Structures are given as structure tokens and as C-alpha cells.
Prior knowledge:
alpha/beta; 24 strands; globular
Amino acid sequence: MARSNTFTPAPYRYGFADPEAYLARTPKGLSEETVRAISAYKHEPAWMLEKRLEAYRIFLEKPLPTWGADLSHLDFDQMTYFMRAQDRPARSWEEVPDRIRQTFDRIGVPEAERKFLAGVGAQYESEVVYHNLQKEWEEKGVIFVDTDTALREHEELVRKHFGTIIPSHDHKFAALNTAVWSGGSFVYIPAGVHVDIPLQAYFRINARSAGQFERTLIIAESGSYVHYVEGCSAPTYSYDALHSAVVEVIVKEGARVRYTTIQNWSANVYNLVTKRATAHKNATMEWVDCNLGSQVTMKYPAVFLVGEGARAEILSLAVAGQGQHQDAGAKAIHLAPRTSSVITSKSVSHSGGRTSYRGLVKVTPRAVDCCSKVNCDALLLDESSRSDTYPTIDSQQSRVKIEHEATISKIGDEQLFYLRSRGLSETEAAGLIINGFIEPIVKELPMEYAVEMNRLIELQMEGSVG
């Protein structure tokens, strides 16, 4: 039975919902018939159906994680795993059905596309409803389509890379995603091409007790560059929803990829996401991961440094309020010589919320002369909130440099007194302190997203101080 939430969520900007109307949807619950139906709806090749069925069998065998956030209330039998809102992705905004277009208009997706994006995708429930890439980048050989379209039009590329970084047997939710995946983004950047302005995808869950399982695959060839940005939201319901995505990024020699997430799910969503990248010789992979909203988040972006001189930077921000547990972190796996990683984690807990940093730095015997630095800072706004740190460092090589720093602090009375003596209210003073605390993360966002991030944090902090 789906669980009804008993807490009152913080003010949420995107908690509106549309009437539910779909061209196709599977019945509630997960079964082999559901998996076959999803593949049939999409007219997929036989090898993908086999991959889905194998993953479904693995899902049944794998236990739920017993570490991290409490997942005992997840009811897979009450979820709907596939909903189709229209028959194909639109290339013109006017082709999108009115009710869906109005939803994304309210969120600001088309405005963002016009102002500062090279391309944009918008996913509504299980499938992408709109996708567009500026002609300039198409002419340079850039591919930016939804993953379903990629499977039809670029099958060999998808088959070569799909599941190579996150196999179905990795854990229960990797298996779940592989069994029922739908939508997501496929990005291919040719060698030497630099996409100077971001590509963006926006993911929206609308229905009650729904699941969204997008699959994103990014391939950056040698010497290329791309910045991919994703945003997420959902209506506020009294019943749980599930978001369980898988993201695989392949960064070839000398290439650089930045992947930015601004998550703002409503407080009824379980956000259980697996993100992993491989960085080859002299490549750079950057994760910028901002987690607000959701009832539970478990997400640990990882980089496997497989080539000599590869670099990883992972910036993580988590904000948890009433009834929320943000269990976030990062992983850096050093597999080659002279690789480097920097992990910076910032968390804010207020109104009884809980944040956790869970991280791993692993150095294998081959990774001689590598270096890694981990910095975890937590800010507590009241006595009822909580923050935990679970770092793991596993070094099998003596010629390395590894640093780990962790701090936990509260907003000091003397700080508030100083700012209030300058004419600020207690809430305004606390807001300035919080903005200064998270500034190392927010400054890495494009300006328009940084402004939005600060606005979202202000909304979530309303009433949490004073």
C-alpha cells in the first residue's frame, strides 16, 4: 500500500499538477508483462528486450539497500512504470500539447532555451515530449536526442556503450532502471568540437504514485567539450513517487564534460539515482550536483579515472528540511597513474531535516603519484536537525597524496547579532550566512542557474529561522 505522508512540506514552487491524460500507460505494479509492454510500445530491437528481461530478473533477486536512507516504505506494486503523453517528441514548441506546454512554460523551459541554451529536451512522465538542437551544432556533428530516438537512429552507438559503466547487476535500482527505462538524453560530441553554451534537459513527474526512469548516455570524443544541465520537479501529492535514473558518461582522451543537476523534487519523491563516468587519458569529468526537495535522495556521482592524467571534480550541495533525508556524496576511483580528484560537499539541515555525506576515494596499485582532496562542510540551523559523514578512503598505493577535511557548524549568535545590528532581520541575516556557506558550489553554475538556485534556497528556508 502506498504510504501517505504525515508531514507538511516546505513551500514548493512547482507543486501544481495537470489532469492525467495519456495515450498509453501500463497497469500499476512491476511484472515481466510490464517490461515486455514497455519494449513493445517502443518497437525496440530484440537485444534491448533481452537486456530488459535480464535486468528484471536481477531486480527481483537483489535486496533493497539497508544502509543510507530508510527505503522500507517503498511499494513497487503501487507504482506506474510507463506513461506516454504523446506519440513522438516535438521539434517545435507549438507541437507540444497545450496542457504540457503550459506546464513547461510555468517552469521556464522555453524561455531558457531562447536565452542561453544550445539545445533542450523536456521529459514529461516516461518519455521526452520536446527536443531541439540549434542547427549550428547539428552541422558540426553533435547528436542531442532522447535516448529512445537514439536507439532507433544510432543503434550501434547505443549498443556499444549502454550499460558498460553501470551494469544491471550493480545494484537493485540499476537493475530496475535497465528493466523499465524510458526517455532520458543521448549526447554525442565529435572529436575536437566544443559546445560553448549548455545543453539542458528537464524532467517532470505529473501523475500520482508514478515512476520516472530516464536513461542518459553522454559520449565525448577526444578533445571535445560539453556542459549538460538537468532540472527536475514534480507535483506535491500525499503519496510517494519514485525517480530512479541512470546516467553514464564516457569522456575520451583530452575531452572535458561538465554535468550539472539542479534537483527540486517535491517532498513526496524518492530520488534514487546512479551517476557514473569514465575519464580517459588527460580527460576531465566534472559533476555539479545540487539537491533540494524530495523525501529521500540517495545519489553519489562517481568518476572512474581510467587514463593517465585524468581529472575529476565533484561538487555536491544538499539542503534538507522537515521530513527530508538527503544522503548524497561522491566517489573517485583512481585506476591509472598521475590522476587527480577533488570532492567538495556542502550541506544545510534545517527544520529537523537530515543530510549525510557518503563518499569513497579508492586508489588501486597502478595509480602511482595520484592525489585526492575531500572537503565536507555541514551547516545546522537548529537543534532538531542532523548531519552525518561517512567517508571511506581505500589506498593500495603508497606514492599518493590524499587529504580529507570535515567541519560541522551552526549559525553563531555573534554572526546574527553583527548582521542584525546593520539593520537586517534575523531571517535576512541567516540567509546571507547560508548564501556565503554554499557560494563555492553556486559560483560554478551558469549565472541564470545560480540566480535560480539562490531563489529556490530562499523559498525552502522560509520560516526555518527565527
